[in-house]
Structures are given as C-alpha cells and as structure tokens.
Amino acid sequence: MPELERIPSPYTYSLAVKAGDYAFLGLHRAGGASFAEQFEGTLVFLQDTLARLGLTLDALVKVNVWLKNVQDLPEMEKLFGRYFEPGHYPARMTATTQFIDADCLLMIDGVAHLKG
C-alpha cells in the first residue's frame, strides 16, 4: 500500500493528501473585501499548496468551486481564465452554498494528478 503524504492545516482537515498518482485538495479560501480579491487569494493559496507537492495549477484535473452568491459566477468565469490556457481547464463543478464565516464568498477544493 502506498504511503500517504499529508499537508496539514491548523484545522481538522488536511490542505492536501497525496495518495497514489493523485493529490486531493481540501478547502482553500482567502480573505478580501471583494469577490475578485478572495478569488485571486484562493488561487494563490492553491498554487502554494500544489507547489509543496512539486506541482502547478496545470496538474489540477477536477475542482469544485463553492460560491456564496450565484451572481458571482460570471466574474468567476473571467477570473478563472487568467490562470489556465484556453482548452486546458480542469473539470469543474460550481455550486452555491452558505458558509459559516459570513465574510466568505467562495471556497475551492479539487484533485490534482501528480504526473500532470
């Protein structure tokens, strides 16, 4: 059985767990007053976590984006395109939800391929 590698968080979940050929990413979010600030900060946080595994955003094969407000979807689409080449996007599911933290506008989790 392959060893699991975990990147801990200060909370009761791991930022990432490397298992076999994949890394499973726990929730990532960032602060900021606007949706754009939170989105940009979240992507930087994801990049940092992936870098700790020797990966880049290109290794992402699946992401789940959780939005507080569905009205932020068009802006998310524009911002998402800044981080990936056209046609090289990860598979994605976007949904809306309520967050415990009232200031949270989005969270992202996902799966990365270690050989990607």
What do these coordinates show?
The protein has helices spanning 35-52, 73-80; strands at residues 5-8, 14-19, 22-28, 60-67, 91-96, 106-113. With 116 residues, the chain is α+β, with helices and mostly antiparallel strands. It has a single domain, classed as 60s Ribosomal Protein L30, Chain: A (2-Layer Sandwich), CATH 3.30.1330. The chain has a 6-stranded mixed β-sheet, covered by helices on one side. The longest helix is centred in the middle third of the chain and has 18 residues, at 35-52. The radius of gyration is 14 Å and the shape is globular. The mean pLDDT is 95.
Number of helices: 2
Distance between the termini: 22 Å
Number of structurally distinct domains: 1
Classify the helix fraction into a percent range. Answer: 10-25%
Kindly report the CATH topology.
Answer: 60s Ribosomal Protein L30, Chain: A
Taken in chain order, the helices and strands follow as EEEHEHEE
CATH superfamily: RutC-like
Identify the CATH architecture. Answer: 2-Layer Sandwich
Sheet of most strands: 6 strands, mixed
Residue runs with pLDDT of under 50 for 5 or more positions: none
Q: Average the pLDDT over all residues and give the rounded result.
A: 95
Q: Indicate the radius of gyration in whole angstroms.
A: 14 Å
Helix and strand composition category? alpha+beta
β-strand number: 6
CATH class: Alpha Beta
Shape: globular
Strand order of the largest sheet: 1-2-3-6-4-5
Beta percentage is 25-35%
